[in-house]
Amino acid sequence: MTRMTNPSFQNRQQGVALAIILILLFIATLVGITGMNAGLMQERMTANTNNKAISFMAAEAGGAQFWDWLQQEFADGTLDWTDDDWRTGWTNALPASLPQNPTPNVGASGYFWIDPALSWTDDDVTVTVRGVSLTGNEVLAQTALAVEFERPQSGGMQINPAFFKGMLANENITTNGKATFQGSIHANGNFTNTSGNSELKDRQGIDENGDPVTIENTITAQGEVDFGGSTPHDPNDPSSSPRIQSNAQEIDVPSAAEFIDETKGDGNVIETCETDDLPDDGDGGGVIYFCDGDLTLPKQQGLSNVTFMASGDITHRGRSYLGANNELSVALISGGNITLNGRSDMYGVFWAEGNVRQNGRGSLGGSIVAGGNIRLPGNFTYEQSDSFSNILPLPEAPGPVSALAMTRWQEIH
């Protein structure tokens, strides 16, 4: 028996199969195109992110170069913040950093330029730095940063720092016997202490907030230090700094003679070599005396709130006291030498163009500055004080200058 096949049925089966194949092929094509588009999108997003990062780094590099220029000018002492010519000096120091000729600095495509229209004030400057990612002439991404720098600020005029060094000599300092030092010592020559029983101690002070603080004292010399006594330094503690140092840096010593010449003609200075008119209690009431010659102060006369200047030598044979709030209120300023006699305690500023010599064994406190030598006896105590009464006519010097500061680093949207 023979089975017969319907030709039209077979044709219909083939048509259905073809349609299914075409549908599957279409779906596969869509999936492929979608995958390709997703890949291209991902690649484009990655490229955009990379280009943005390059432009950002380029802008940061421009800001850093301007900062480096400011710091170098400050270090070289050529920074002149308010001078118009100086303000344009960066265009020469940072060549090819203008829009018409940007500087490549991040790979082959990162460039920056600094907007020449800087915003200067007397205290700060705002710099706009633009970073771009370039391919040929096509800008692929760009970033703008606003960077603000603050000029160094002066600390104003302050008492010359030499008077905060404790005991300072332009030549040598010698102590002949046991001594106790509660203050810092520096000689631009040598320091010699002949006793191995001497002591260097720390002292108590007040910080800028008015809180008590321990101040570490030192003995230094540009030449050699010969000090066989004890110090607070702990050799077993690596963080403890040595207190005794030879071959130290020289410290400038101001001239007492020059200061006297500049000050003696002031209207508030009384010229006399007679001191009999001082009150019995020795309180000079803030008066400044000048003697054109040698000056010998009355024996056992206690002094406070007074300044004596002399073009020659000064000899003091009495006491001198601290003023209100334990401030130094007495100053002896000599164009020659200062000699301190007797066993009385003496506190003040002792500043000589020549030598300072103590012959007695009383305590000595305050600030001692000598253009020559300082010579001290044994069995005495020296106590440094950095608290000065405003009645003392001490020379001033510019205070410390603050560093340059970067106060803003912000992306501009």
UniProtKB/TrEMBL annotation:
Lineage top rank: taxon: Bacteria
Polar residues composition-biased segments: 237-249
InterPro entries: PilX_N_dom (IPR025746)
Annotated segments matching region Disordered: 190-210, 224-249
Pfam families: PilX_N
Domain called Type 4 fimbrial biogenesis protein PilX N-terminal: residue spans: 14-62
Protein name per UniProt: Type 4 fimbrial biogenesis protein PilX N-terminal domain-containing protein
Organism: Wenzhouxiangella limi
